[in-house]
């Protein structure tokens, strides 16, 4: 009898660890499936014929169809540049430069993937409506309270997710090889 109990415990533990690690790999990715550029993460093989099972499972669970890697890049940030989790109760500054591409946007979402509701009706900025300096530098404030300038709302008291989409980048390889310097920096300003 002790053998059957030990076998049952072993099988149950194996199933929990195996299914849990597969779920985590499909949800968040790991070093072989994702690439981190500062706080921004992208799936390495999204939209390619070389997509691994975890990448395919990730996009199937999300319910999205990735475009080809050369024509579209998508980055997600759930942490700031110092590595702390983004909180909807805090105010952050997102500073970067306009991307050489056909089109790009940056948007805020709840942890469940829903656009954040705001009084202005805006939950994203794109290259056409963002206020930027002559050299292309922009600053966006992510906050639950209305801010002057480029303001993205965050869900007060919840986690927040930022997504940066770049359509037809002029040089996707150079952007990815540029490291975290090529991506916007996310800095905590204040927490209430």
Write a brief caption for the model:
This protein has 192 residues and is α+β, with helices and mostly antiparallel strands.
Shape: globular
Strand content: 25-35%
Fraction in helix: 10-25%
Count of discrete alpha- or pi-helical segments spanning 4 or more residues: 3
Strand order of the largest sheet: 1-2-3-9-5-6
Using DSSP, what is the number of strands?
A: 10
Rg over C-alpha atoms, rounded to the nearest angstrom:
19 Å
N-C termini distance: 57 Å
Helix-strand topology string: HEEHEEEEEEEHE
| CATH homologous superfamily heading of the domain at 72-191 | Domain of unknown function DUF1214, C-terminal domain
| Class by SSE composition | alpha+beta
Overall pLDDT score: 86
Report the sheet with the most strands, covering strand number, pairing sense and barrel closure: 6 strands, antiparallel
Low-confidence runs: none
The name of the CATH architecture of the domain at 72-191 is Sandwich
CATH class term of the domain at 72-191 = Mainly Beta
What is the CATH topology descriptor of the domain at 72-191? Jelly Rolls
Q: How are the secondary structure elements laid out?
A:
Layout: H1 2-27, E1 34-37, E2 40-43, H2 53-62, E3 72-77, E4 90-97, E5 101-110, E6 124-126, E7 137-143, E8 150-153, E9 160-169, H3 172-177, E10 185-191
Parallel strand pairs: 7-8
Antiparallel strand pairs: 1-2, 2-3, 3-9, 4-7, 4-10, 5-6, 5-9
Helix pairs in contact: 1-2
């Amino acid at each position: 009898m002790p053998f059957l109990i030990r076998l049952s415990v072993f099988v149950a533990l194996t199933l929990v660890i195996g299914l849990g690690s597969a779920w985590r790999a499909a949800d968040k990715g790991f070093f072989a499936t994702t690439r981190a550029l500062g706080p921004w993460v992208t799936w390495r093989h999204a939209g390619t014929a070389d997509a691994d099972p975890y990448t395919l499972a990730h996009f199937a669970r999300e319910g999205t169809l990735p475009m080809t890697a050369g024509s579209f890049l998508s980055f997600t940030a759930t942490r700031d540049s110092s590595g702390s989790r983004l909180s909807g109760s805090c105010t952050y500054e997102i500073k970067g430069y306009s991307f050489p591409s056909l089109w790009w946007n940056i948007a805020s979402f709840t942890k469940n993937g829903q656009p954040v509701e705001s009084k202005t009706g805006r939950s994203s900025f794109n290259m056409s409506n963002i206020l930027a300096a002559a050299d292309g530098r922009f600053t966006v404030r992510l906050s639950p309270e209305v801010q002057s300038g480029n303001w993205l709302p965050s869900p007060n008291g919840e986690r927040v997710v930022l997504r940066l989409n770049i359509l037809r980048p002029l040089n996707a390889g150079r952007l990815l090889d540029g490291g975290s310097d090529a991506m916007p920096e996310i800095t905590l300003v204040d927490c209430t």
